[in-house]
Each structure stands twice: as structure tokens, then as C-alpha cells.
Amino acid sequence: MDVIAAGAVVFRPGREVLLVHRERYDDWAFPKGKLDPGEHATTAAVREVEEETGVHVRLGPPLGSQRYPVAHRMKTVHYWVGRAVGSDDVSSYEVNSEIDAVAWVPYDEALTRLTYPHDRDTLREAWTLRRRTQALVVVRHGASRSRAAWRRDDRVRPLVVAGRAQALALVPVLAAYDVSALVSSTSTRCLETLAPYSETVGLEIERQRRLSEEDCTAKAVRSLVEDLVTRGDDTRRGLAVCTHRPVLPLAFDALGIPDPGLALGEICVLHLRKGRVVATERHQPR
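RE: above sequence
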């Protein structure tokens, strides 16, 4: 089984990229590290960048993964483009036995300073996706009580234990994309899916009947999606939208992409620039 790691290629204005020097290997590379047990790769990428550089980032478009041999095993590293949230100053970072230098390096210089060819390839790929994007996270609600066995109004059908676990697992993944606005169907199972993140970061959930199974129409969903894309493009902050399986094809059609057929509790992250989808990725938080 591969060793799994995650990291980010972090850019800032001025054509600069964030690199670290590891004393043990005497190499220059991107900030990255192994996943903790049970940790999602998106969460690990944000955590490792902050631990190794002191810079907190949000994730942008995903990059191709690297896979190479280490000792007697193979290692897979998942990468994203990253942007600083807050200060990008690394001058006060306390060097240690693992990382003895952190630097913002001009792109052209980074291509020569990076030690490994696969990192230079990743940097070239990241350069094409470096422009700021907004993350629109489409969420299918978590596992809920059986529709067949539920005798009350379907709108108040709640999550089951497995669904509540999915909702909790969603928290660090949404945080990795700096989600700062939440929109949900008015149905209980959707509201409960976003509730742990809402409570953790102190965000109100905007309730939209147009996202419910009972009240959605293709026209209404398209109108809402267009509004949300415009709203998000104004702030560049992440936005999460939770709805139901029958509504998802309408939402994805409004976004101009095929319905990926999300499983319960699964998410699709769309990276938007000027209202256009430039990259997508799917995750099943665990």
C-alpha cells in the first residue's frame, strides 16, 4: 500500500511560489506531508502547509498527483493550488530540524531551485491554474431515515447515525476550501448535513425552498444557481450548497456540466473563475 501525502503549490501576487528547504534531504520542495490516520487529503494539505510554513491556505483547483518510490514502498502525493488566507508573511517562521528555510520564490527561479523533476512538472501545471478561483461545493445530503418507513412529512425526515457521521466528516473538508456561505434545501436532512460546519464556524444556513424535492423546478434551480455563482464571484469565498438526488441534475445542468451522480454525503467541488467552471473534483468525506 502506498504512503499517502498531500500538499499545495501556493502562489501570491508577483509571480511567487512558496517553497521549503528540508535539512535532512538538502532539497527544495513544496510544503507537504503524510496524512494522519483517518484524515482527508484536503485537510492534510492545508494542515501541512501551515505546519511547514506558518501560512494558512485555502485550496484551489486540484493538480495531478505524484507517485514515486521511497525506501521499499511507493508514495502518492496529492496536490492543489493554494492561496493564503490572511497573512502570507513567512519571515517569523521558526525553523526546525525538518524545515530549515521557507521562502517565496519567483516562478522562473523556482523552476531551477526545485530539486526534483516531478516537482518542476507540478509547478508548470499549477502555473496554468494559478489565477484566483471561487469554490462552489455541491453537497448531497447524508444518509437519512428510510423514506418507505417514514410516516411523517418527508421534509422533516432526519439523518441517521451514519448520516450524522458524514456531516461531521464534512467540516474539515469544507474548511479546506474556505467555505464562508451555506445554502440548503429547507428539508431537515439537508440542514442537518450542513449543521456541524455551521455551528463550528458560526455561519447561518440560508434556506432555499427552490432546492427541496417538493418545490424545485428547472427554472427555479437555474435562477438560484446563477444568483449564487454571481454572488460568489464577487467575494471569491467558498460556498456550499446542499440538496437532494432529484435536484442535483438540475443544478449541474445549470452549471453546464454533466451530473456526476453523487452518493449520499458525497461532494463535488467546482472551481469557478468569472462564472466559468475551470476544474472539478469529487470527495467522499470520511
